[in-house]
Structures are given as C-alpha cells and as structure tokens.
Design brief:
The structure holds two protein chains of two kinds. In chain A, 20% of the residues lie in helices and 33% in strands. Chain A is of the alpha+beta class. In chain A, the strands form two sheets. Chain A has a four-stranded antiparallel β-sheet with strand order 2-5-1-6, with helices on one face. In chain A, strands 3-4 form a two-stranded antiparallel ribbon. Chain B has helices at 5-26, 32-59, 65-92, 124-142, 152-175, 195-213, 229-248, 256-284, 289-306, 312-336, 344-358, 365-375, 381-413, 420-425, 427-432; strands at residues 95-96, 101-102. In chain B, β1 (95-96) and β2 (101-102) form a beta hairpin. Chain B starts with a helix and ends in an 11-residue tail after the last helix. The chains are: A alpha+beta, B mainly alpha.
Chain lengths: 115, 443
C-alpha cells in the first residue's frame, strides 16, 4: 500500500479530479495549502499593481492506494496537470510513501481491503 | 406710510412677480417632497445592483465568485455610460421608425434636460437617473442564467448590444407617453414598475442565452454547491430593501400611490417567502434559507408590475401564486436539464409573467372605474386580461427572438462562451487575475 501526496496548482483541481475519476480512482482527500518551490509565483494584480506573493496557494491531494494502482493514479495526475499549464514552473510535485496500515472506521476492516 | 417689516416683504414680492411668473409659464415648480423621495428611490434601486452581485456571487462556486459579482458591477459601468450618452434619448424620446424606439437628439449626453422640471415637480435629471438604474439591473439579472461559463469580454459586449436593441425599445413601448403598450386598451397595459420591461425580458433573454451557450462542464453530474450562502442572504436583504425604491419610486411622486406601492411590496414579499418554505417543507421536509430568499424574490418580482393597482390582499395572493409557480418551474427545469444556473428565468421570468397576468383579478375598483370611463362605458376584467396577455406576449417574443439574433451574430465575432480552460480554472483567475477569498491564505 502506498500513500500518494500530490501538490498541484489551485486552478487545476477540477481537471485533476476529472482525470482521476476517469481512471477509476474515486477516493481522495483535498486540502488548501500554501507554499513555494523554486518558482517565482505567477503574478497577481491588485488595483493595477503586480504583486508577487511569497507563499502561493496550492492544492494538496492525498490518495491511499494498493500497489497496483500507483501507476494509474500518478499517470492520471501527471497527464491532467500537463493540460492548460502554460509550461511555467510551479506545476507541483507528486510524493509517494509506503503506507503501513489502513483501518476503515465503519467496519474495522484493515489492510488492502480497507483502502 | 409707515415703514414696517411687512412693507419690505411686499416690496420684495412685487419685484419677484415678473420673473417668477415668467418661470412658471415655462415649467412647473419643484415639489421638494416628491423630489426628495425620488432621489432616495434612485439610490435604493442602485443599491439593488450590489445586492444582486452578492445574491448571485454567493450562489456560484468559489472559483467564480468575483467573475459573477463583476457581471453586476460591469453593468453599472456599461449601462450608465450608454444611458447618459444616448440611452435616455432612445428610451424616452418621441417615436421614430414607426415607434420601434424613441429619439431625441437634444438629450444626447442628457444635455437637453439640464434645467427641466417635469410635470410632477421633479427635475428631469432625477427621472432620467431613476430610469438609468432600471437599465442597469435588467442585464445584470440575465447574467444569472449563464453564470460560471461566460467570457467577460463576450458578456460586456452582449449586455451593451442587448441594452440598446432590446431594453431601450421595450422601455419606450411600456413607459414613454407615446409608447404603443402604454396606450394599449382603455387605460394602457399595466406595468407599474417593470414586470414586463425588466423581469420578463431579463428572464426570457436569460433562458434563451442559457440554451444558446449550453450547460456548464460536467452539468448535471457534478454537484456544484454555493460558495457562500451568507452573502446570498445579505444580497437578498439588500434587494428587498432596494425594491421599495423600485416599486414605491415608480409612482414618481411622494404621496398616496407611493404608499400603496410600498405596502403591497412588503405584503407580497413576505407572503411569497412563507409560501416557498411551506411548499419546500412539505416537499423536502426542510425549510432552507435559500428557499426563503427565493420566495422573497418571487413575491417581489410578481408585485412589480402590479404595485400600482392591487390592494394588500391581492398582493399576498400574487406572492403565494408566484412562489408556487416558480418552485414548480425550477423542478421542471431540473427534469428537463436546462442549465439556467441561478434561475433568472425560473424566478424573474415566471414571477414576472404570473404578476403581469394575474394582477388583472385583483385590480382595485377605482382603477377599473377610471378605465371604464376612458373606454366610454364598460371595461371588464377579461378585456384587461387580454391587454395584459398581449403585453406579456410581445415582451416574451421580442426578448426571445432579439436575444437569439444578437447572440447568433455576436458569437461570430466574439466567443460568448468561455473556453474550457477558463471554466476549469475559474472566471476569477482567468479573466480577472484575482481571487475572491485570497485573504484566507496564510501569507
């Protein structure tokens, strides 16, 4: 079992979700996060003045999957973030970590069945 | 002769007589009471536009909140400029082109009314600005039908063209003294404050535009929840308050008819709101906040054409009727799969039609008597119903056909619908480079 954590652009959440659902990955947790990588943030405009925010709003997606779903999930996210990206830096990253245990609260199932 | 204060007053009055009588011959004296109320009403109607921005803004998804609010604010800019430059000339000038619209080139840039006082004792500037607010809110209402999927540039051009070709002619027909609907039947088609001109035309045009532009991406499979119902409720509150200017101001006086309009406006809104949550309570088992304010709007829309002629009991009946009709139409819309996103047609179109037609059965006797006198004998409820039906039919047909033609031609030059990319990213980011709730970011 693996935990996939993806940090993506705020504006690409819908297209990533659509792509994941098409790939058959339907369990997902989404949160608003802030941060920055090497990127210079995309400019925003307030009253005619361009500002560069030092912490950029991003979306963090967490998906716990069984091993045979890792590639499908990552491909879905990867392909979706390619579209409408504009080739700028700051598209985000995917982190994959091993997952020790999963417990489904309703039934108490554990392991592969619970994912 | 003894010099007393009275002597000076007399002397003063004598010197005044020639000039004041000269002025009096030209135009009526200012009625400060009526003018004060009309100034207030003008501001109240403008208050409805930010109210509408909040009402609509709260109902869309987070990524479109600013874009949707901008639809209302952009209307304030565009429609005001057009109105001042030539809109007032077109809407309230004498008939040209067989009465299609009016034209009075003296009123370009409002230059011809700089010192005019109208017969009701109010400066024409006030009347003109009061009417300008109606021209602002009407296209802003349409925006609800195609929210979340329209390009900003396309929207701006559309409302400008729509205002000129649809709104000004309709406004001229119904409210200008030589408009043909103003003079239909014994005593004119009844449209006190804009049931046909504002609500039916906006609702019908909205429906046509929503069908023309198509549904939002992933509609109706994706649940699209309102981002902030608190803002929607505040907006609805502002609309309710502003509506007293809309209706009671449309009497163009500060007296009995303003008081009548004000009372029935309150009664209809309250009855509509209660009816909506009762229906919803029976149907779904819960009374929602959005349902309550939808009922408020349905009642207010229905009473708009009727505010000058019905009494409070009739007003409450209209409110209940409008809520029932709008509620059913929204259910029907969901069945049919139309994406009239914020129910511009479901509430303004249907509510306006219900109000403009069914007001016939609640008209006060004195109005009917006056109509009978003008008709030279008798004037029945059903004859007036025929007049109302004609006016409503003409408004629906003109708005629907006109909007379709405008959209068809305009779409050849500017894409009205936003690109898929813009729709996914959200209008706020794509068209305005801003975000609605940026302050939430720990930055």
């Amino acid at each position: 079992m693996k935990l996939i954590i993806a940090i993506i652009r705020e504006t690409q959440l819908d297209q990533v979700r659509e792509s994941l659902i098409q790939a058959g990955v339907t369990r997902i947790t989404v949160s608003h996060v802030s941060g920055h990588g090497r990127m210079l943030a995309e400019n925003e405009i307030y009253r005619g003045q361009k500002v560069i925010p030092n912490l950029v709003p991003n979306i963090r997606i967490e998906i716990a999957v069984n091993d045979d779903f890792v590639k499908v999930t990552c491909d879905a996210i990867f392909n979706a973030t390619k579209a409408n990206d504009g080739g700028l830096i700051g598209s985000g990253k995917i982190f994959i970590t091993p997952l020790e245990e999963v417990i489904r609260l309703r039934t108490g199932e554990t392991g592969k069945e619970a994912i | 002769m003894k010099i007393t204060p009275r002597y000076f007053i007399l002397l003063f009055l004598i010197t005044l007589i020639p000039t004041s009588s000269l002025l009096a011959a030209e135009m009526p004296e200012i009625d400060t009471g009526a003018t004060a109320w009309m100034l207030t009403s003008t501001m109240l109607v403008l208050l409805m536009v930010p109210g509408l921005a909040m009402f609509y803004g709260g109902l869309v998804r987070t990524k479109n909140v600013l874009g949707t609010m901008m639809h209302s604010f952009a209307a304030m800019g565009i429609m005001t400029v057009l109105w001042v430059v030539f809109g007032y000339s077109m809407a309230f000038g004498p008939n040209i082109l067989g009465g299609w619209f009016g034209w009075n080139s003296d009123n370009l840039f409002l230059s011809g009314i700089d010192e005019t006082i109208m017969s009701g004792g109010i400066p024409e500037y006030v009347f003109s600005m009061f009417q300008a607010k109606f021209a602002i809110i009407t296209p802003a209402l349409i925006a609800g039908a195609f929210a979340e999927r329209v390009s900003f540039r396309g929207y701006c051009i559309f409302i400008a063209v729509w205002g000129v070709l649809i709104y000004y002619p309709l406004c001229h027909w119904v409210w200008a003294s030589d408009g043909f609907l103003f003079n239909l039947g014994a005593n004119g088609a009844i449209d006190f404050a804009g049931g046909t001109v504002v609500h039916i035309s906006a609702g019908v045009s909205g429906l046509v535009a929503a069908l023309f532009i198509g549904t939002r991406k992933s509609f109706p499979h994706l649940q699209m929840r309102p981002n902030n119902l608190v803002m929607t409720l505040i907006g609805a509150g502002l609309l309710w308050v502003g509506w007293f200017g809309f209706n009671a101001g449309s009497s163009l006086s500060s007296g009995l008819s303003a008081a009548q309009a004000l009372t029935v406006t309150q009664a209809a809104a309250a009855a509509g709101a209660l009816a909506w949550i009762v229906i919803e309570g029976f149907h779904l088992g819960k009374a929602t906040a959005l349902g309550f304010v939808s009922g408020v709007l349905a009642g207010l829309v229905a009473i708009t054409p009727a505010a000058g002629v019905v009494q409070p009991a009739g007003a409450m009946a209209l409110g209940v009727l409008a809520s029932a009709a709008c509620y059913s139409c929204i259910l029907l819309k969901n069945k049919l799969g139309f994406d009239d996103t914020l129910d511009a047609f479901g509430i303004h179109g249907i509510g306006g039609i219900i109000g403009a037609l069914f007001l016939t059965f609640f008209i006060r006797d004195s109005w009917m008597a006056a109509a009978a006198e003008k008709a030279g004998g008798s004037w029945t409820m059903w004859q007036q119903f025929g007049v109302q039906l004609t006016a409503v039919g003409i408004a629906i047909a003109y708005a629907a056909v006109g909007t379709l033609i405008i959209l068809y031609i305009l779409n050849k030059f500017v894409k009205i619908r936003s690109s898929e990319e813009a729709e996914m990213k959200g209008l706020d980011n794509y068209y305005h480079g801003e975000r609605g709730y940026g302050m939430v970011n720990p930055n």
